[in-house]
Amino acid sequence: MKPTNKKSDAKERFMETHKTHTENELLVELIWNLKRNYHLQEKVRQNTSKLVWWLIAIPFIAGAFIVFLGFAGINSI
Q1: Residue ranges of the domains in the chain?
Q2: Which residues are within 8 A (CB) of 61 and not within 5 positions of it... i.e. 6 or more apart?
Q3: CA 52 to CA 40: how far, in whole Å?
Q4: pLDDT in tens, 23-68
Q5: 0.90 cut: is pTM over it?
Q6: What is the DSSP string of the chain?
Q7: CA distances to 43, 54, 76 from 47, in Å
């Protein structure tokens, strides 16, 4: 009897494709996948940091500078 749950189907396919591998091979593959995911997440973190600087920090600093110059101009009159 075949299970109807999609997770069970995916698990069965995974077990079928990896049943010939040794534990050592599976551990190496797991380490490889973890390292790849870590590097992908690090790229996302770096890109998010750049977006925050360009969309939030730099306009805030520029706006504060413009306001400062505005007040400096008013005080010099």
Answers
A1: 46-77
A2: none
A3: 18
A4: 999 999 999 999 999 999 999 999 999 999 899 999 999 999 999 8
A5: no
A6: -----HHHHHHHHHHHHHTTS-HHHHHHHHHHHHHHHHHHHHHHHHHHHHHHIIIIIHHHHHHHHHHHHHHHHHHT-
A7: 6, 11, 42
